[in-house]
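During the reporting period the student researcher (J.K.) took over the structure-prediction task from the postdoctoral fellow and processed the backlog of single-chain submissions. One of the processed entries is reproduced below for the supervisory committee.
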Amino acid sequence: MSRLITLRHYQSKRAGFGLIELMIALALGTVIILGVTTLFSDSSRALNDVNRAGRQLENSLYAIDLLAKELSLVDYWGEASAPVDADDPAYGALRASELDGLEIGPYPASPPLCVGTGATGFEPRVELAWAMESPLLSGVGAEINAAFDKNYCNGGGSMPSAGAAYLAVRRASTCATGVGSIATSNACGAVDDFFYLQTNGCYDENAGLSGGEVKLYGLGSADIESTLTYSRYSCNASERAPIYRYVSRIYYVNQSNQLVRLFLDALESGGHGYVEEILVDGVEDLQFDWFIDDTGNGTYDRKVSDLGATDAANVIGAKIWLKVQSPQDFRPSSMQSRIVELPNRVGRRR
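J.K. obtained the following structure tokens:
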């Protein structure tokens, strides 16, 4: 009996872990936990880096697609022939029969960037009509500062990067609007207080209609039916020619490395001005190569990076360069490029 009690007492003293064993186990557990935590942290950091790089790539592709689409629509004025001669006595938007007593000259030889606000001293409609002759403008961002300083933009936006290029496009919207169900059926914005244009499709020698006359007015839903009255492809008044909203946009890179779009719109305070929209973050630079057709045969003869007024009239294509910041400081910035044909110009040259 005594031996049994002694054995049980010995076995009870041998059960469990000692202090040293527990300390070793805790140390090993801590090392394992730290290793797992470090592995998880590194994996999460790598995944975040990949996600940021992927988002930046998506942003750059989105931006360059947007600019390419905008360039491909240069010279689009709906059914109007391109190029548009604003004061053509038979067709232009500023011909005598459509002036309503508006003063149209002398107008600046170098077209302003921000048109449609009336800040140049001319009626907004006159500014937009003359801008139809210069549907494409490009230069460096420092030139936008002049427009801001003169308050031509009437609202304006963030300060541009002086060395990066800008792109200004004036054109018609790609969807036809109107009153009633027309805008809805065309998935187009309804008529509001803005500027709209319409091209006549009716040829009637007795009525003095040559087909192709352009009307450009600032109006709303109350008077659009009585003002933009041209017929579509016949002289049947019930077949209304499409009505398009006027589009005027400026793209540039600001000093915060953001791709910005300024667009002409109605302001909450009244009147019209250019509203800023931030499109993409992390854009360091924007540049263009312009392909110039001097001979009018539909193929380019030379390439320029600075687009003057003369060259702008003969551009048939462009290469867009977009430099995008890397999410990590130790990685170089990425460069995206895209070549774009300007079909509305090339088509009439072929």
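The committee noted the following: The two ends are 117 Å apart (CA to CA).
J.K. will present the remaining backlog at the next meeting.
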